[in-house]
Structures are given as C-alpha cells and as structure tokens.
Design goal:
The structure holds two protein chains of two kinds.
Chain A (H helix, E strand, L loop, with lengths): L3 E5 L3 H5 L2 H13 L2 E4 L9 H5 L3 H14 L6 E3 L2 H14 L5 H9 L3 E3 H8 L8 E8 L3 H5 L6 H7 L2 E5 L15 H4 L1 H18 L3 E4 L2 H14 L4 E4 H6 L2
Parallel strand pairs in A: 1-2, 1-3, 3-4, 5-6, 5-7, 7-8
Chain B lengths: L8 H8 L2 H21 L8 H17 L1 H14 L3 E5 L2 H15 L3 E4 L3 H5 L2 H6 L4 E4 L2 H9 L15 H12 L7 H18 L2 E4 L3 E3 L4 E6 L3 H7 L3 E7 L3 E2 L5 H12 L7 E5 L13 E7 L3 H5 L15 H5 L3 H4 L10 H12 L16 H5 L6 H15 L3 H15 L2 H14 L19 H7 L12 H11 L1
Helix pairs in contact in B: 3-12, 9-10, 16-18
The chains are: A alpha/beta, B alpha/beta.
C-alpha cells in the first residue's frame, strides 16, 4: 500500500466548473492511502495567457504558482494540458539563471498528471473501480504529444470492472478547444468538435472519457447542443466509481 | 481589434457550410494520412525517427552555413556548363525569365509544379508580356484553367472532385463532359503533349539542390517535370535558397522521408537528377541550363535563431493533411500560397506580422503538425513565438492586453479569484436538471461567451467550487 503526502493542483476549470473531478481524484488517491493536501492559494497555471501571446501575464501567474507549491513533494494534476504548461512551458517564461527559472526546473519533475501518478508512483493500474458501460477514450493533445500519455489511461480503464473500452478512429484528433482558439475561431472550433463527435458516435459508446476537463467541456457543450445521448466523464470520475 | 486582424470569417463560413467541399477535403487528407501512417510504421521504416532527427540536423547545418553552400553550388553548376542566377525578390525572377525568353526569341513555356513560382506569381507576369506559360502537372493545369491558386502544397487540386474537373475541362477546352479520371487525364495529356513538343523553355522547381555536385533533384509522379526539363531547348529550375543540401549522400535521408510523408510512397514514380545542360556526347537534354535561386525574404527568416527552423521545410504537405484546422477551412482561406500549419508560420515571417496578425492564432496548438513533420519543425513553438510578437506589436489592440493584465492580477490573488468565482456562480443562470446554458441575455452575453454559445452549450459555474467543498469535507472529518 503506497502512502505519503500528495499535493493536488485541481486547475481553475475544475475548481470553478467541474469540482466533482477534483473530488473524484482526491477519493481515488485517498483510497490508495495518500494524505491529500490542497493548498488554498492555488489558482491557474497561466496557460490561457501563454497561448494567447501574453507572456508577461502568463509569467505573473506562473510565479504565483511557484510560490504556492514551493516544497511540495508531488503535485498531482487532473489535466495533461495544465500539467504540460507547468512542466514544459514554465521554464520558457523566465530568463535562464533567474530565481523563477531555477524554481520552475526544480518543480518540473514533481508534477504528475493524474493517470501517470497512479501508474508510475502509486504503481497500480487497478484502483478497484466499477463502471458499467461502453466508453471511448479521447486523447487530449497536450497529454498525447507533449506528455506522451497514450496507453496509461487505457490501461487504467481496462481494469475497471464492467467497463468496455471501444476505440474511435479519430481518438488522436483534436476536439477543437484550444483555449482562446475556441472563441477566436468559434465556427472552426465547433466544426472540429462535431467531427470528433461523429467518430465517437460510430463506436456506439455512451460515455467519452478524457484526462482533460477542458476538452470535455468542449465536447459536452457540442453534444448538449446537438441533443445527443452521450455523456463525458473525466478519468478520475470513472476510477472513483464503485 | 485592428482592422487587419480580421480573419476571412465570411469565406471560412462558406467553406465550412459546403458539405461537398468538406467531404472532398476530409476524404483526400484522410487518404494521405492513412498512406503515410503505413509508410512510416516501424515495420516499413524502422529508422524513421532517427531519419527525422538526422534530416533536422542536416537542414540546420546547411541553413547555418548557407553562404558557403550557395557559393559552392554556384561554382559546381558553372563547372557543368550551367548558370546560377541569384534573385533577391519575386520581380527579379520574373524579369530574368522574361528577358531570357525575349533574348532567345521564345514564346511558349512549359512548367512543372513549383510552389516557388507560385510565390512570385510568375505565370501572371509572363502572360502580361504575351508569353504563354502552361502548367503541366495535371492538378496545376486544372487550376490554371480554373484561375485558382493551389489548395495544397502537394495536391494542388485536392478540393476538386472529378465532377468539378469535368466542368473545368468542358468549359475551357470545349471537350465533351467526361467524369472518368482516366479519360480526363487523356484529355489533358493530348493538349499538353503538343505544348511539350512546341515549347522552347521548360521551367521546373527543385525539391533539393545538391550543393556539392550542382544537381537539381525533382520528385514527381506524372513525368511532366522530367519532360519539362528535357524536351525544351532551355531548362530553368527555380528554387528558394533553403532548398540546398550539402551532398548527394544526404539525399538518402531526405528521399526516404519526402515521398513517405507526402503520399506514403517509398519513392515517387520519377526522381530526376538534373545537372547542367546536355554534354557533347549526350543525345538529349536541354542546351542551356539556369538555376534561379530566390531569396524572397528567406534571409530575413534566417536571421532569427528562434524561428529559423521554419526554413527546414521540404514541402511534403504532411502538416496540412494532419491539421484539423486545415481540414476544416481548406487551402484558399490562408492568405498566401502556402497554407496549413507551415503557411501559418512562414507567411507572417515573409510578409511581416502586421499583415495578417490573426494567422498564428488560427490553431488549437494540437501539435499534430510537429508530430508528422519529417524534419521535426516545432510548428507550435514557432506559432507561440509569433503570437507573442503579434501581441507585443500592439496589433491586437489595447483591449485584449488590458483583459489579460486584469486576468493575471486576479489569478495572482487567490482571494480575488475566489470572490470573482463566487460572484459568477451567484449570477449565472442555472438551467433545470443540470442542463447546460443554451443562451445568455444582457448583461451576461459578453463577446467571448457569445462566441462560445454560437456553437456549443456552456456549463454553469459550480454552485460550490472545489475549494469550498474541500473545506467542508475537511471540517466534517
């Protein structure tokens, strides 16, 4: 039984819009024996500004993050995209040699996307979950291409009792969210979501699972608009199910 | 918003709303995706990832020593009886071709596919001087008849179905309507053969220019480039200066990658090595050979080490095929001849970021382009750099910067963040049974929310944020 103290960064979107995802992640980690710490001063990783071309503003938020999580041994994040922002892009925001740059390099190896933490640190692919239904998995882009997370979440889903995983053709295609892209180019973004949903529908799955709540907001938003009988769930919510 | 920062929304809307066109783009790119995937799979090309890394290194080396290789290629081409012509910009290229045609008394020019000549609008310039330039690549020929620019770097007429092709041929050549691709090809071939035999000048592009030997390498599937370079009396190859590679042995790397990345072919049907005019004891080939090397803004890109890799591109088109944005908006909604992700990074660098500042933002940064790039250009990284340059230049206007400054100030102050969250949660509409928001009325219908709602429903903020639920959970234990 693994144990220890784990700090969670729930991300701004989970905190404000999808709190159940954060609670589910905490449940799974607690069941594994971890002591969960939530640092109350946490906010956002700064990615919206970074991806929109506002580096200074992103650096302001990143510096805040570095202060909040100073000294944390493990930081577990229910997102590939925010995780990648922290562990890959923070260092690009600061002058090499500066204190913040050093801090970001120190932080980097301690940041774990949730599924990776389960597999690599907790060393388990079976958290004792039960979920009855056919699900399909959406590879979120930054998890897949910046963090190289592909099989891990599938391994975890494969051990869930009652769950059947059906792959869609377009698993690796972007859902069209892309942060501010979704509102700067709404029609293109919406079109991308609908293409993805076509592929989801072809699997016959009733649930789409991802490790990123922002992708799921995009997909659920388009599914809801189309009135389709499909629901989206974060991996943590599936793994917390019993 | 700055007036030049407006993407061609109406045209994009039209493309998205054309189901026939959408199917044509999606199907054609999917075919190219599938073919590439098989061709670079571990069992087909075990060294694929090593080759990509090597190709990147060779390109970096060449671009960083371009002055040396340019001098080398000039002397090598001269040693084989040809001539290198350096052109600073598009006009110089057209002037050279015009003057040469005039001097040699030639009127008809056959051309094989070349993006570089598209870049300089060569055909328009030639036509305005009563010269006839005929595109001989089937796709390019159809586009020339239809007065369109290429839709795709590799498959210029990717957007045309065979029914579109039938219309173009009937309208322009007066032939009977024919929808069978094979028969359509025969129609084009019959016209083009005459042109090949008659033309005094053949213009080709160059996929690679081997500096060490002065050879121009052209890959193609139709044989029209080989004919264009060998049948007419004069052969002019036109290429950007970034097409140089040091030596012929480097081709072993690039030829393995180019065909596979572009169409999934291990090698294209024709790979021509063209070095200089016909020699004394040779029975055929051109009598004169010119290699036109165009700068056209490339040295400007070269000067910036952070974005220099944009010049490594070998024009395979894989990034277009895999780009979910290109697959929606197609090629013609990009402002310049180069479309898709590579177009989005090189267009602003060639034309200046002030011209189409929206372009680097037209990406979800999904990274599919970088994943398939055979020379490992980190396109998302360059897009991010360009986005930063655009905002720093002020092209986005003061409003957006103010909004992000305010946002950052809130995100760095957890109490404010919680307060704003609580206010939003209090005032947000909450549809029944956990449904999502369909529309917002004043004063909630702020522009970003309205843009979101134009396509998708919106989740209401949680009544209780995670942080407040966490507090109660801890207190209850």
């Amino acid at each position: 039984m693994p144990s220890g103290r784990v700090s969670i960064f729930v991300t701004c979107i989970v905190d404000q819009v999808f709190p159940n995802v954060g609670l589910a992640m905490a449940d799974v980690l607690e069941r594994l024996g971890y002591d969960i710490e939530f640092r109350q001063d946490q906010t956002c990783c700064g990615q919206p500004a970074f991806n929109s071309g506002y580096r200074e503003e992103a650096a302001t938020v990143a510096r805040h993050f570095l202060r909040v999580f100073e000294g944390a041994e493990y930081i577990v994040v229910p997102s590939g995209s925010c995780g990648s922002m922290i562990s890959h892009h923070f260092e690009e925001l600061f002058e090499p040699g500066s204190d913040s740059h050093k801090e970001s390099l120190k932080l980097k190896p301690r940041v774990y996307e949730f599924s990776r933490f389960l597999l690599e640190i907790a060393k388990t692919d079976d958290v004792g979950a039960r979920f009855d239904g056919v699900v399909t998995y959406h590879d979120s882009c930054h998890a897949l291409r910046e963090m190289h997370i592909k099989n891990g979440p599938r391994r975890l889903l494969g051990k869930v009792r009652g769950l059947t995983l059906k792959e869609m053709d377009a698993a690796e295609e972007c859902c069209g969210f892309g942060g501010t892209f979704s509102i700067k180019f709404p029609e293109v973004s919406g079109g991308m979501a609908r293409t993805k949903i076509d592929s989801i529908q072809k699997t016959g799955a009733s649930t789409v699972v991802s490790i990123d709540s922002s992708c799921l907001m995009q997909l659920q938003g388009a599914i809801s608009r189309a009135g389709l009988p499909i629901r989206t769930m974060h991996l943590a919510e599936v793994l917390a199910s019993r | 918003m700055n007036p030049s920062d407006i993407p061609p929304d109406a045209a994009i809307h039209e493309t998205l709303g054309d189901p026939r066109l959408q199917t044509a783009i999606y199907t054609a790119t999917q075919r190219l995706i599938d073919h590439r995937k098989k061709a670079v799979a571990a069992d087909a090309l075990p060294a694929y990832q090593d080759l990509r890394a090597l190709a990147h290194r060779i390109k970096r080396h060449t671009i960083e020593h371009l002055d040396y290789y340019l001098e080398l290629v000039e002397s090598q081409v001269a040693a084989r009886g040809g001539k290198v012509v350096f052109c600073e910009d598009a006009n110089e290229v057209a002037d050279f071709v015009l003057n040469l045609a005039k001097e040699k008394g030639e009127r008809l020019i056959v051309k094989s596919k070349s993006m570089t000549t598209e870049e300089v609008h060569l055909n328009d310039r030639l036509e305005s001087h009563q010269l006839e330039a005929v595109e001989t690549d089937l796709g390019e020929y159809l586009l020339q008849l239809a007065h369109q620019r290429p839709y795709h770097i590799v498959a210029p007429a990717l957007h045309m179905t065979r029914y579109d092709v039938a219309d173009v041929l009937t309208k322009n050549l007066g032939v009977e309507r024919e929808v069978e691709p094979e028969k359509q090809t025969k129609i084009a071939r019959a016209t083009l053969r005459e042109k090949f035999l008659e033309a005094g000048i053949g213009i080709t592009g160059a996929n690679f220019v081997v500096a060490g030997s002065g050879a121009v390498v052209v890959v193609e599937n139709e044989g029209n480039a080989r004919l264009s370079s060998s049948a007419p009396r004069i052969h002019i190859a036109i290429a950007g200066i970034e097409k140089l590679i040091p030596s012929a042995k480097d081709l072993a790397v690039f030829l393995k990658l180019l065909g596979r990345s572009a169409t999934g072919q291990p090698l294209t049907v024709y790979t021509s090595f063209l070095s200089g005019p016909r020699r004394e004891n040779e029975p055929d080939g051109p009598k004169e050979f010119y290699l036109v090397l165009l700068d056209g803004g490339r040295t400007k890109l070269l000067a910036d080490p952070g974005k220099r890799e944009s010049l490594f591109c070998i024009r395979c088109g894989a990034c277009l095929n895999h780009c979910p944005v290109y697959r929606k908006i197609g090629g013609h909604n990009y402002p310049w001849v180069y479309s898709g992700p590579i177009g989005a990074i090189i267009t602003p660098q060639f034309h200046g970021i002030g011209k189409d500042p929206w372009l680097p933002f037209a990406s979800s940064l999904c990274g599919a382009c970088a994943e398939v790039c055979p020379v490992k250009i980190d396109i998302p990284k360059v897009l991010l750099k360009l986005r930063f340059e655009v905002t720093a230049s002020g092209a986005k206007g003061p409003g957006e910067r103010k909004a992000f400054s305010l946002w950052a100030a809130i995100m760095a102050r957890p109490k404010l963040f919680s307060l704003f969250g609580a206010i939003a949660a209090h005032f947000a509409p909450r549809p029944k049974n956990g449904a999502w928001i369909r529309k917002l009325s004043w004063p909630m219908n702020l522009a970003p929310l309205a843009a979101w709602l134009s396509q998708r429903d919106l989740p209401p903020p949680a009544a209780q944020s995670f942080r407040s639920q966490w507090k109660s959970r801890k207190a209850a234990r």
